[in-house]
Design brief:
By secondary structure, this protein is mainly α. The protein has 3 domains: 212 residues, no CATH class; 51 residues, no CATH class; 103 residues, Serine Threonine Protein Phosphatase 5, Tetratricopeptide repeat, CATH 1.25.40. Helix content is 69%, strand content 3%. The protein has 19 helices and 3 strands. Strands 1-2-3 form a 3-stranded mixed beta sheet. The chain is elongated. It starts with 8 loop residues before the first strand and ends with a helix. About 3% of the residues have low confidence.
Length: 439
């Protein structure tokens, strides 16, 4: 995320100082010496004194001093402003040193600005705008830094503060300022995103819904995050509504399409999933993973299981569906021959068919008929073995890890049983030893 370029020169309107405003003058004198601590002490007294507590300039000076305290020196090493036509430079290292005693300096600065404007509604927007804009932009950049550091709770609070600055209005001080409109809109989006990242989805959703109506904050990710919240709520109607809007706005965006595919996969809506996968393949015909998922979808349709994973009766058109599965697995292997998963699924396809053939053979009581069925079964095994062996070699080269260890175990089990059934005892024992070491 890009940070916003900061405004660093601030202007404060001139005003005369009389005897009753001694604390204000003292604060100014301390600022000349860059003594932020004593300047703060004097301005705090000025805003509490009966003679100056309703002085708009005193509150404005307090706002700037507290702003300096809250502004991290990493973003701005110094804060420049002009007072009575005299330039002042506040060293933010010195100002930041007071932050421990004023942890709410940001909020106090904002309150001081509001009080100043309340006391002098006709105060110049041209003079206040750079001050307040810098307050916004420094905090915006801090929020971005927090997000980039995955400190989403901190980021949420910063963007929430910026939202408060926007809501404060300050006499429409930013009206017609396109840059600030963008900053405020994105701040809302990032506030919602921060809440989403830390699981506060109920807080994120209404802000997201506001962002989705703003042309400034339109991104595919916005729609995906909103749809994810509705998916977790099991609100299919709202999920469908959001995704329909997303498709209309971003018809070629692959993230939107992948989001649909994943949703239909998770919800078991096979027909819709197939349609979206075919749409995805049309957009990315060289993406092997899509063919693998499409193959799996066809195969699962042919061989359904119940919620506990127990096999159910095969689909009436199981042969056709399984044929479609193999076609897509084969295409994936052509596109990415070094993908262990594509090799594994083709090998598994043939292994499962060999298992079905073995089950039928074992039902046969006639020795001649039994013997006649064996070559056909062995031919199926022979088709699958090269794929299982290649999948194993690819994983051996890749190295085992938590994500592929389960598949590797299945590959070894398939190889061991295939060699055992076909009478290749030596190879079967070798694989069994490998399995024992894996466990």
């Amino acid at each position: 995320m890009k940070k916003v370029l900061l405004l660093i020169t601030l202007f404060i309107g001139t005003w005369s100082v009389n005897a009753q405003k001694a604390n204000i003058q003292s604060a100014i004198n301390y600022l000349k010496d860059n003594d932020i601590a004593n300047a703060k002490k004097m301005v705090d007294e000025a805003t509490q004194s009966e003679s100056t507590k309703n002085n708009a300039k005193a509150w404005l000076l307090k706002a700037v001093i507290y702003q300096a305290i809250a502004t991290p020196k990493e973003f701005m090493p110094q804060l420049n402003f002009i007072l009575n036509e005299t330039p002042y430079i506040l060293d933010l290292s010195a100002a930041n040193a007071l932050k421990a005693s004023e942890p709410n300096a940001n909020e106090l600065s904002c309150a001081a600005y509001k009080k100043s404007i309340e006391l002098d509604p006709k105060y110049s927007k041209e003079e206040l705008s750079p001050l307040l804009s810098t307050l916004v932009l420094v905090n915006f950049n801090q929020g971005i830094t927090n997000m980039n550091d995955s400190k989403f709770a901190d980021a949420f609070r910063v963007f929430e503060f910026i939202g408060g600055l926007a809501a404060a209005d300050f006499q429409n001080i930013w009206k017609g300022n396109g840059q600030m409109d963008t900053v405020f809109a994105n701040s809302k989006l990032y506030q919602a995103n921060s809440a989403y990242q830390i699981g506060k989805e109920e807080e994120a959703l209404p802000i997201f819904e506001e962002c989705i109506k703003n042309p400034i904050t339109q991104t595919p990710d916005l729609y995906i995050m909103i749809s994810d919240i509705y998916e977790k709520k099991n609100n299919e109607e709202k999920w469908t509504e959001v995704m329909k809007s997303a498709k209309a706005k971003y018809p070629k965006d692959k993230r939107i399409l992948n989001n649909e595919i994943n949703y239909y996969l998770k919800t078991g809506k096979a027909e819709q999933c197939i349609a979206k996968l075919k749409e995805g393949i049309a957009a990315e015909p060289a993406k092997a993973d899509l063919y693998v998922i499409l193959g799996q979808t066809y195969y699962n349709m042919a061989n359904p299981v119940d919620k506990s994973g127990k096999p159910m009766a095969k689909a009436a058109n199981a042969k056709e569906l399984e044929g479609n599965a193999l076609t897509n697995y084969t295409k994936a292997a052509e596109l990415d021959p070094k993908n262990a998963y594509t090799q594994f699924y083709i090998g598994l396809y043939h292994f499962n068919h060999a298992k079905e053939a073995t089950d039928e053979i074992n039902k046969e009581t006639d020795d001649k008929k039994y013997a006649a069925l064996v070559p056909g079964r062995d031919a199926i095994i022979a088709k699958g073995l090269p794929y299982l062996e290649k999948a194993r070699s690819l994983l051996d080269a890749e190295g085992l890890n938590d994500s592929n260890k389960g598949m590797y175990k299945q590959i070894l089990q398939g190889l061991m049983q295939s060699f055992s059934i076909t009478g290749k005892t030596e190879k079967s024992t070798e694989i069994q030893n490998a399995l024992d070491k894996l466990n």
